[in-house]
Structure formats: C-alpha cells, structure tokens
C-alpha cells in the first residue's frame, strides 16, 4: 500500500507542477538583482582631458572639474557649475595617473578643496586649490619629495591619497598619502602633510613597495594607525632598509613611526595583504602572505596582535599562483574578514581561526584589486567596483560583497575614471570615463526586485493551474470510464450471485429440512442453516462490491466448503492454512478464491468415493500474497475441468481480474496444473493465484 501511495504521490498534480516548475527555473533563469545600473547618457570627450564631478561647495549639486593636459608645459584646471566657469588655475608640470581626484575639507569651512600632485623630472609637488571659496591655491607647488628613477625603466611613482584626518593639536585636518613604485628606487613612503603650518612628516626610509594603506585605531593611544600592505617586487639590489626582495608587515603610528619592527616574509615574488579585525573584543591583525614564485614556498594565513606577536598560522594549500587580497568593512571592523582569490569567482568570509563562515559567489573579475571603492549612489555605504574578466564589463558589489551586479559595455574598457555625482533635481549618478568617451550611469535599487519573492511562487501557481486544468479534464474522462466499468462490474456481480448452483441450494435446503423433520440433530441443523444463511447474506448484500478484503473472501469460502461437506455427507476433509505474515486486510477481487475452490470440489473431490481432501494455503512471498488450492482428484483433462457452470465462472473471474487491474493498477497472475508423483502419476490438481499486496 505504501508503494501505491508513493506512486500516486508522483502522479499528483502538485508534484508534476513542481517538476515542471524546477525545469522552467533552471532553463529560464530570471535575474532579480537588488540593484541595477541604468545608462543615462554618453558623450565624446576632449582628448587629453580628465573629467571629475565633485560637490565642492556641499550644496547638493556637483561641480565639473576638468584637468587639461594638452599643453606639455602646464596643467590647466577649470571648475564649472551649471555650464558657468567658476575658477581656473594653471599649474606647472603635469599630474600623473589621474584615475581619481581627491577632495576634502581640511579647515572646516564647509567647502572642499581638491588636491593635485604634479611631477617634474625628479620632483613631486602638491597643490591644494580652494575652487569654490577664494578660488586661489591654498598650497601652490609645495615640494614633497625627490624621486630616483631606475635607469632600466621609465616607470614613475604612484601617488595614493589616504585621506584628511583630524589633528587634535590644531584646528585643522592633516592630509595623508603614500608614494610607491615597482621600479623607482625612491620614494616609497607614507606622508603626513600638516596644512596648517606647512610641515611634512615622512615615514622611515624603506625599500618596501606599498600596495595599500588601511587607517584604523588599534591601540588606546589617541590617533590613528596605518596598516600597510606590501609587495616583494625584487627591483632593488641596493642595501636599503626593508628591501623589496621580501614582503613586510608594517604598521605606522600617527607620527608615522613603526608601531613595532617590520616583520619579514618570503622572498619575491610575493604579496602580503593585511587587515585589522576584532577578536574577543581586542584588535588583531590578519595577514595573508601570497607567494606566487617557483620556489617551494607555501602561502599562509597569519594572526598577529597589534605589537607584531604571531598568535596563529595556517598554511593555505593552493597550487594556483596568483594575487590574492583580504578585505574588511573599513568603517566598522568586525570579527570576520573577506578573502578574494584571483581568477576565482568566490569570496570566502572567514573568522580569526581561518574557518570559512560563508562563501559568496562573484562574477569573474580581473585580478583581486577593485577599480575603486566609493559611494556611487550616496546612500552612506561604499561600493566595490571591479573590472570584468571579459574587459567589457564592470562588477559592482556592496561593501560586504553582497548583491553583485554586472554591467556590460559594447566595447572593451581601456581606462577607468570614476567619481560620484550629486544632482538636486535627479537621483545621484556616477561618471565613467573610458579614453575619450564619458558615460553617465545610475546605480540604484531595482524597483522590480520585490518580484523576486513573487516570481517563483507565481510561476509555480501558474504551472499548477495549467496542470490542474489538464488533470481535471483527464480525471473527468477517467471518471466516465470508471463509471461505465462499475456498471459492467455490477452486472457481472449479479451474474456471479446467480452462479450459486440451484442444485446446490436445493440440496442444502432439503438436507436441512430433513434434519429438522427427523429431529435427530437439531444443533447441526441450526449450525448448517446459519452457515447457509450467512453465505447467502454475503452474496446478496455485497453483490455490488467488486473488491473486498481478503478475510471476507476466506470467510465466504470456508462457509461454502462446510456446506459442501454437509451436502456430501462429510465425504472429504479440508484445511485452510494462513501464514501469520499475511495481511488479511489486503484487497482482492470478489469470488476469486471461491471459483477455484468450487472447481476443485466439483471436478476433483466429488469424483472420489471417499478420502477426498482439499488444501488451501495462503502465504506471503516476495511482497505478494500467494494462494494455493490443492485437491486429490483425478487432475486436469479435457473431460473433467472447466465445464459448463464453473467454466462460466472462470470467464467472469478473468473479467474481474482485468477490471481489478484497471481500477487498482495491480496485475493478478493465475495458473492451474496437475500434481504428479515420482512415477508421473497424477495425484490431483493445483491452482495458484499471485497478487501484489494492496491494503485498504
């Protein structure tokens, strides 16, 4: 019965709809990103001009800052608002690698200045321009440092702005930045420019290539600490402190002195990514040293305290040599960090024990470094922007790498310059400059995102409705067929009711009457009459039932046999052996066993003058009920079996078996054969019925 119910569950409309729904979801993926990128406009830009949008006067409407490098002798900087020129400044020399423009309010006047570095043959200069205030350069061509060019390379130094940070000693903020290069010998330092008194603080002499700087408050002493990520590029052969032949763990205090002596890691090529995290309420440093050279060095995770003491180490087994990066939410340091492996589409969020807390799927990106990390929709949270592996797309994620979004362009992206735009009349946009083409994009919440929660159930309900309609149509047709079959079966059962031999009925009644008339054995007469009455009642009352429990059929057959014994003066004996494992509630076609028993008595046992016997075995074999009916009559031949009356019974039984299969999907098998001795003599006949178990 369980098998039947299990089979029926698979044919239920709800299950069929579920299967179809799963196939549709897999074959027809529908993207419901929480965010979307909408292209607003596109325009051709002037050559050798960088375009930046910044809200310098903090009025909610951006100014356009253009940096024109067409003149090889000077840099022309123009600030515009509402298509009107607010200010123009000319700087000697050119800035380099203008992928972004740093702005900040150092003097708390609610107006942001922008900071521009220019480079001469061997010098680096800083200019700070107050474009929406006085319009003048607050700092004009302030010398920062000399740079020593490597004769084997044309490489020039990279300058990275860290930020404007409060100075508790004076009523101004200080400007922090670092300068580094893979090939230039110097400078490779972190700088603190105190604008209020025009003084410059420089970190100790170092040959380490600075890859990134994270600002954090690690200890209880007022002021920030600066966690440096470094690379071993192997470009300096000279004996300089902290040579780039190795990667170094470096942390600077607010005065740009080492918080603890730098820690050395394997030789080049390698990369050390370090992030501050919290662990049990205390600040810690997690480091990943990524060695991607040919030597037999392994990449490893490390856990340090803020004084550089190693607390834990775990080897990272990965045969793929590539750049990797650790990330955190820098604005709220948590107890977990993010690990991004280059050429991998997964980001692992890990704890201080280097266990993976969760895995985040990410579209394929170039390298492990984002293009930028800024708030492009001005919702107070920054977004990561990566370059796609195909070179024609950007991937945007939240600061915890959730909700990755891919935006494709028609052509490859040669260069990227991104800055946020604030517009009073419209939603915030961001600007992307690729070569001489400027694209205005809007990154916003997807208004159709809520359909994500309706799509799947809606699709399922639609499929279910469709399947239910088909199911109802088929069920209606099947119901018509079943009603027809039941009507036929009803007629068949009426015919079966009439299959009780009239001679059998007359003989029984005459015998019972004789007992009553003689008064010899009234108890036997009552007993036999009760058996006959019960058999007739079972036949008449249940004549409309096609399928009955096994126990009812056995009870009917037992009554019939006892009446036949009485009618034949107890000339034969019988046994009914039922295996205890047989479920008597199992359902079978009505009159199934009776027809074979009737045949055995009529054409088997009655032909013996004495000593006849009838055996009925009901067994449970291989999840089926096996019914064996044996007699010790003359056996089966053309003259003594399947004659008129019983032959008609077998025809009806066959029809019942076919109908039973249609209604219950269970196929019954039957067979009849002779019982033979060792010498081949016929000892009787045997009928075998096999039916799979079907409980009510």
Q: Can you give a write-up of this model?
A:
The structure is a single chain. The protein is α+β, with helices and mostly antiparallel strands and 696 residues long. The protein has a domain of 146 residues: Heat Shock Protein 90 (2-Layer Sandwich), CATH 3.30.565.10. The chain is 23% helix and 38% strand. It has eight helices and 39 strands. Strands 14, 15, 16, 17, 18, 19, 20 and 21 form an eight-stranded antiparallel sheet that branches. Strands 34-36-37-39-38 form a five-stranded mixed sheet, covered by helices on one side. A hairpin with a 5-residue loop joins strand 24 and strand 25. Helix 2 packs antiparallel against helix 3, helix 4 crosses helix 6 and helix 7 packs antiparallel against helix 8. It is elongated and about 140 Å long. The chain starts with a helix and ends with a strand. About 1% of the residues have low confidence.
Helix and strand topology:
Blueprint: H1 2-10, H2 13-27, E1 35-44, E2 49-54, E3 63-68, E4 74-81, E5 84-92, E6 102-104, E7 113-119, E8 123-129, E9 137-146, E10 158-166, E11 173-180, E12 189-194, E13 199-202, E14 209-216, E15 225-232, E16 246-252, E17 263-267, E18 270-279, E19 282-291, E20 299-304, E21 310-316, E22 324-327, E23 337-341, E24 346-350, E25 356-361, E26 372-374, E27 383-387, E28 393-397, E29 405-408, E30 417-421, E31 429-434, E32 437-445, H3 451-497, H4 502-518, H5 522-541, E33 547-549, H6 550-567, E34 572-578, E35 587-589, H7 592-603, E36 612-621, E37 624-631, H8 644-664, E38 669-676, E39 682-692
Parallel strand pairs: 34-36
Antiparallel strand pairs: 1-32, 2-3, 3-4, 4-5, 6-7, 7-8, 8-9, 10-11, 11-12, 12-13, 14-15, 15-16, 15-18, 16-17, 18-19, 19-20, 20-21, 22-23, 23-24, 24-25, 26-27, 27-28, 28-29, 30-31, 31-32, 33-35, 36-37, 37-39, 38-39
Helix pairs in contact: 2-3, 3-8, 4-5, 4-6, 5-6, 6-7, 7-8
């Amino acid at each position: 019965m369980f098998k039947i119910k299990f089979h029926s569950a698979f044919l239920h409309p709800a299950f069929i709809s579920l299967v179809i729904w799963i196939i549709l979801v897999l074959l027809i993926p529908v993207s419901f990103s929480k965010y979307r990128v909408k292209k607003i406009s596109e325009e051709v830009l002037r050559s050798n001009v960088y375009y930046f949008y910044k809200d310098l006067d903090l009025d909610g409407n951006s100014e356009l800052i253009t940096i024109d490098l067409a003149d090889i002798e000077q840099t022309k900087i123009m600030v515009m608002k509402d298509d009107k020129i607010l200010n123009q400044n000319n700087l000697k020399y050119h800035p380099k690698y203008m992928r972004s423009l740093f702005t900040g309010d150092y003097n708390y006047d609610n107006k942001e200045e922008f900071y521009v570095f220019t480079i001469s043959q061997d010098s680096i200069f800083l200019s700070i321009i107050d474009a929406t205030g006085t319009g003048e350069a607050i700092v004009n061509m302030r010398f920062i440092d000399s740079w020593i060019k490597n004769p084997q390379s044309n490489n020039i130094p990279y300058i990275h702005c860290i930020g404007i940070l409060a100075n508790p000693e004076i009523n101004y903020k200080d400007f922090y930045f670092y300068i580094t290069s893979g090939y230039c010998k110097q400078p490779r330092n972190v700088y603190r420019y105190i604008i209020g008194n025009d003084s410059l603080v420089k970190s100790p002499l170092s040959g380490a290539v600075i890859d990134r700087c994270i600002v954090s408050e690690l200890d209880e002493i007022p002021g920030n600490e600066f966690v440096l990520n470094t690379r071993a590029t192997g470009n300096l052969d000279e004996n300089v402190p902290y040579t780039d032949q190795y990667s170094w763990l470096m942390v600077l205090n607010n005065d740009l002195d080492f918080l603890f002596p730098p820690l050395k890691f394997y030789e080049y090529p390698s990369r050390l990514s370090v992030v501050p995290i919290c662990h049990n309420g205390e600040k810690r440093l997690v480091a990943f040293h990524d060695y991607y050279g040919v030597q037999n060095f392994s990449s490893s995770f490390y856990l340090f305290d803020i004084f550089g003491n190693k607390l834990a180490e775990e080897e990272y087994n990965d045969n793929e040599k590539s750049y990797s990066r650790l990330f955190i939410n820098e604005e709220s340091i948590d107890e977990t960090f993010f690990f991004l492996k280059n050429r991998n589409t997964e980001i692992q969020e890990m704890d201080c024990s280097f266990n993976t807390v969760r895995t985040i799927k990410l579209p394929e990106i170039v390298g492990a470094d984002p293009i930028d990390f800024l708030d492009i929709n001005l919702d107070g949270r920054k977004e990561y922007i990566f370059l796609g592996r195909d070179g024609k797309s950007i991937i945007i994620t939240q600061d915890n790498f959730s909700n990755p979004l891919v935006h494709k362009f028609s052509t490859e992206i040669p260069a990227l310059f991104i800055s946020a735009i604030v517009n009073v009349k419209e939603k915030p946009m961001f600007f992307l400059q690729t070569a001489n083409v400027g694209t205005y994009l809007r990154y916003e919440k997807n208004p159709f995102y809520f359909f994500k929660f309706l799509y799947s159930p809606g699709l399922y309900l639609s499929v279910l409705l469709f399947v239910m309609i088909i199911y109802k149509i088929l069920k209606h047709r099947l119901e018509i067929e079943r009603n027809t079959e039941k009507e036929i079966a009803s007629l068949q059962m009426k015919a079966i009711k009439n299959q009780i031999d009239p001679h059998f009925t007359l003989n029984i009644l005459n015998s019972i009457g004789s007992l009553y008339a003689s008064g010899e054995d009234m108890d036997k007469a009552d007993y036999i009459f009760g058996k006959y009455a019960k058999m007739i009642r079972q036949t008449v009352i249940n004549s409309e039932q096609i399928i009955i429990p096994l126990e009812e059929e056995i009870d009917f057959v037992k009554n019939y046999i006892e009446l036949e014994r009485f009618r034949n003066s107890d000339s034969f004996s019988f046994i009914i052996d039922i295996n205890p494992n047989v479920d008597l509630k199992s359902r079978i076609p009505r009159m199934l066993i009776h027809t074979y028993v009737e045949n055995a008595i009529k054409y088997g046992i009655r032909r013996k003058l004495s000593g006849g016997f009838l055996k009925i075995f009901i067994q449970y074999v291989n999840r089926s009920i096996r019914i064996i009916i044996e007699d010790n009559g003359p056996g089966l031949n053309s003259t003594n079996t399947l004659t008129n009356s019983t032959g008609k019974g077998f025809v009806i039984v066959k029809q019942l078996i076919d109908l039973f299969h249609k209604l219950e999907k269970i196929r019954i098998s039957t067979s009849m054969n002779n019982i033979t001795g060792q010498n081949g003599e016929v000892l009787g006949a045997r009928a075998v019925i096999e039916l799979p178990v079907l409980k009510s």
